[in-house]
Every structure is written in structure tokens, then in C-alpha cells.
Amino acid sequence: MGLRLEFQKRTEDHPKWLPAATSIGAVLLAFVISGFILKSVGADPLYIYSYFWTASFGSWGSISDVVVKATPLLLIGLGSALSFKMRLWNIGGEGQFYMGAFFASMVVLLPMVNLQTTPKIVVLGLMMVMGMVGGALFGFIPGVLRAKYNINEVITTLMLNYIAVYWNNYWIFGKYSDAGFQMTKMFPKVAWLPRLADYAKQYKFFSGITLHAGVIFGLITAVIVWIILNKSRWGYKITLIGDNPKAARYAGLDITKNIILVFMFSGALAGLAGMAEVSGVVHRLQERISTSYGFSGVIVAWLAKLNPVAVIIVSILFGALIVAGREIQPSGVSFLIQGITLFLVISSDVLLKYTLRIERTGKHSKSIEPEAALTEEAK
Amino acid sequence: MNLNVIVHAGISTGTILLIAAIGEILTERAGIKNLGVEGMMLLGAMAGFKIAHETGNVWLGLLGAIFAGGILSLLHGLVTISFQADQTVSGLSLTFLGTGLALVMGEGLTGLTTPVVPNYTVPILSQIPYLGEVLFTNHNLLTYFGYLLIPISWFFIFKTKPGLHIRAVGEKPAAADTLGVSVYRIRYLYTFIGGCFAGLAGAAISIAISPGWYSHLTTSGQGWIAIALVIFAQWNPTRAALGGYLFGMLRRLLLDLQGPAMLLGGRNPFFYNHNLVFFLQMMPYALTVLALLWGSSGARRKRLGAPAALGEPYVRGERGL
Fold it and tell me: Contact B62/B95 with Cβ under 8 angstroms?
């Protein structure tokens, strides 16, 4: 061939549009590659993708479903983005989500307050707080282990995911089981987050629209995380510790404390997602309330390049993938697309640091533009 | 509950962890952290099962599994060695990708049967009292492969020249490079070999030790436990083997605890309240965390640690470690 790929370190900052372009390119390319893989196992990718489209954006009802699925991804993605900023790999969103759901459910199941007399806003507020406490607790454990004993947080958070699921099972199969089913009794209406469908009497249009108030938590949280990361002193500390822990230590920052805090914050957001799911969607505690939101949240954060605003957009995309992927065969398709996307995104990061040149060995060489390079490098 | 049964079964299932952990030790000793073990194992389990089912030849299945794990790991190599991407994120995406590929390609395999790697009783050794019964009687061939792997990998890493090269590349890549050892080539090679071992470990589940394809439940987090084992074992194959076997025995013990109505002369709570079994199922994961805690404090006391350059991309000519 006589071709040689050569990376050259960028001497100036990459263009502003490049991160977004690489993310978009990665998603598109992921669909193309997955298409070939699906084709090779005898499935029809074009049919599957067109099904994906109609199943997710085909009607107002399905769009609302997409946003409902995007809500936990948004919250978990934001929490992940914050912890990744500090180079803390909190992969425990799944477990923190389950613990949040469990703690929030306890408000109703114990019950913590008199559900007949307490106003709805108090019940929901308490559930939110409890959800965040549950998630933060499961963030605290790996946080302390990492900060004080330097134990790999990827493994501890993953192990805690399994523990949280079994913990939930213990209660929903046992004490709080509804007549032997793997779920609790339906919560009373006072513990339900308001949904658009509740207003169907006044506005006909809303009938059957399942969108619930949890999405508002997500959007507000996105703004908060954006402010933390870009405008606050804490965000500056987080970024500094992530980029250069040595410098941060010399600057006198308490790294131990900040690791634990970031873990708890990140866990609390996942816990809030768990609360929103039990209170806004399923209205009871049950098995499999998460379709691996915890893991998809990780990809969402990364694909959004840890930018809170971009997390909103990406979580919608992944919400669509989950909604459509529910019924499609083969069952791993959405996993496959997520995995390939993440891979392409991290490989494309090289384009932010380097320019890619293709050299003809011997005669002349030419450099190529980054978009072309993206497709080139994936080949 | 029979102690011999627990030890025998523990050594069997511990072999799966042992193979995956030794592969990961080789990779990490060369300075590459590959958190994708779970994904490579699942892909290996699927590939082995599918190939063994379709060809009727279990050895082709094993070969295919090894190959599948190896190929997948090369992606990790490409992204982390050539593109210098973050190894943690790349490993995670490898898990996603491996899981996705395995589920898509393994569609419809559940419930099928395949030929499996046979069990074997070693003629003379099995006559040794007690040890013969638990170590050399009616074990899967891969278990015996595990026995051989422990001393061989230990000897290879600590006593041979290629082993020295791996450790040099993992501890001080720049120094190794100046001495003419190709850092990139060695890192690629052992990332690949680690992947091959992970693929084999996957097939050790699906077509040897506990045969069957149960989609993502086939591995059920054992890849992650293998990675924890590597840290616990302080990157030493013999310790990894010990840990793997102990872990296997523990799993069997937890399973056996559910059976009898009486336990230690009292009523067995797990028998009378079946929901308590969920706590037993939690134990392997909780104990993994505790083992890490224990292992890390031991490592710090003895000043042992991860290979110094673990997780650090190497760029020739750039100031690194």
C-alpha cells in the first residue's frame, strides 16, 4: 500500500466544534457498524432501524416514553459526568439507583408518615430526600474505600450493584411482597409524581401521556451541575483534582474529603433517579426497575464529553434506544450499539489531541481533515 | 454438606477465575489495565458454545473462544496503546461491546446442547489419600490445565527473559525502550494473550465446567471478580490461584448452606426462610470488596503494589514516569 498513518500532537487548541463533531460521527458510525454485525447474523438492520425510529419518535405517546426513559439516564449521566471530571469511575449508578428506589419506597412501606393525612408535597419531598440518601449511602461506601484505602472504585461500585439488587429482592420477595408476587403493593396516589396524563380531563391531548415530573428534576439538576462545574469553587477543585492530583495536593486541597463528597453527590443523583422511577413510573417497588440505566448513564456522560447540557441531548437519544430496544430481537442490539458508540467516542478523542496525517511512504504526503480522519481511523 | 464435595467443586469453579485472573495478570504486568474481562469472557463463552454446537467439536469451540477473546482485546490495545485513550473507559466499553456482541450472536442458543470438555481421573495420583479424591478425581481437563498454568505462569513471569521484559515494560517503559525492548509490541502481545485467557475462561464455563448458555447470566460478574482477584493477589499467579480456589469453595459452601433443614445442631434459617438466600447470594460480591480491603492493606504494609506504569500510556520521547 505504501500508506502510513502518523499522529502529530496538536500545537494549538482543537477547533471548538470538533468534540461535538466526533461524538455525532461516533454515533452515526456505531449504527453503520452495528448494521453490518446485524446483517452478518442474519437480521435486517434497515428494518430494525426504521422500527427503532417509529417505536421511539413515531407518536407523542412514544416520545413521552422516550423522555420517561431518558430521565434516569439524565440524572445518572449527570452524576457520572461529575465524578468522571475528577477521574473517579463511579460505575455504581445501577446500585445507587436501586438503593434510592428502596429508600424512597420505605416512606410508603414503613410508612414513615401518615399517608392519609400528610399533604402530597410533603410525602413526595420526603421520598426525594430518602432516595438521595439511599443513593448517597451507596456512593459513600466506594468513596471511603477509594479515598482512605485506595481501593479500585470500579470494582467496588460494580460489586455494590449486585448487592443492591439482592437487597431489594429480599424485601420485595419477602416482607413487602404483594401476595407472593415479586413486587410491593401499588403505592397510594399521594406518593405518585404528577403526570401529564393526570390532566387529561382538562386537556384531552394529555390522555395516555406518561411523562412525569421527574424530568423536571433532571433538567434542574443539569443546570445545577453545569453551575457547579463551570461557575463554582467546588467545580474548580474537582477539575483540578481530576487533571492534576499532585498539584491539587500541593495547593492544599483535601482530596480525601472531595472524593467522598463527589461520590455521594453522584450517588444521590442516581438515587433520585430511582425515586423518580418508583414514584413516577411503576408506582411500586419491584424487580428489574432498571434496564441497566446505571451503565447507559456512564456512556451518556462520556458521549456528552462530560458536558451537562450535552448530557440532556444524549440521554434522549439513549432513552430512544432503550424504548425501541425493549421489543426488538435479537435482544442485545441496544447494548451492542452502546458499546460500539463508546468505543468510537474514546478512540475519536485521539483527534482532539493529535492531528492525523496519512503519508505515502516515499513521495509526497498530505494531511487530511479531522472528519475524514474519523472515518479513516475506524476502518 | 460434605467438605470433600465443597473443596472438589471449589477447585472446579475456581479454575474459571484462575484462568481469567492469570490472563489479566500478564496484561497488567505489561502496564495495560484491561477492565473488559467480563465482556471478553462472555464473548468467549458464547463463541465456544456456538462453535461447539455447530461443529460438534468441543476443541474447535475452545479454540474459537480463545480467538474471540483475543480479537476483542486487540481493540482495547488499539485504543489504549496506539490512541492513548483512558484504559478504564476503554475497558468498560469493551465490556459493553463484548456483552452486546455475545447477546446478539448468541441469540437462540439458550437450551441447546453441545459436546463438552470431558472429565478425567488421573490414574496413580488419584490414589493418594484425600488429596487424590479432591484434586485428581473426576475433574474437568481444564482444571488440570489450571494446575499446570500456575507454576508455568509464575516461572514465566519471574524467571525467564520474556517475563523480565514484561515486568520492565510495566514498571519503567522508558527504561525498557532505551534497552531495545519494544514497549508497544510487548503491550499489544500481552493484551492479546490476556484476552485469549479471558476467552478461554468464558468457554471453561459454557462448554466445560458448568456447561450451557444463559445469555448474560453465563458469566454473572465473574470477570469483575477475576479483576478484583488480580489486585488481591498482588499480580502474582500463585496467589491468584489460591484466591480463585478459595472463592470457588466459598460459592459452593453458600449453595450448600441452603439445603439441609438442620445446621450446626440448630434450625437452618436459610431452609426455613427462603428469602434469606438473597443474603447468601450477596456474599461473593461483598466478600470481594472485603478481600480487596484486606489485600490492599497487606500490599501497603509490604510496599507491594501495582506495576508502576499500570494505566499510563507510553509515548516514545515524551517524559513519562
Answer: no
Contact A162 B282 (CB under 8 A): yes
The reply to whether B71 touches chain A by the CB within 8 Å rule is no
Q: Give pLDDT tens digits for B1-50.
A: 788 899 999 999 999 999 999 999 999 999 999 999 999 999 999 999 99
ipTM of the complex, rounded to two decimals: 0.87
Residues B135, B4: Cα–Cα separation, whole Å: 10
Contact A262, A238 (CB under 8 A): yes
Give the C-alpha separation, B270 to B259, whole Å. Answer: 8
Beta strands (DSSP E) in chain A are 3-9, 354-360, 365-367
State the architecture of A64-313 in CATH terms: Orthogonal Bundle (1.10)
Say whether pTM exceeds 0.80: yes
- What does the pLDDT look like over B164-203, one tens digit per residue? 999 999 999 999 999 889 999 999 999 999 999 999 999 9
In whole angstroms, give the CA distance from residue A357 to residue A5: 6
Is A41 in contact with B107 (Cβ distance < 8 A)?
A: yes
**CB nearest B104 (choices: A41, A163, A338):** A41
Q: In the CATH hierarchy, which fold is given to the domain comprising B3-119+133-257+271-301?
A: ABC transporter involved in vitamin B12 uptake, BtuC (1.10.3470)
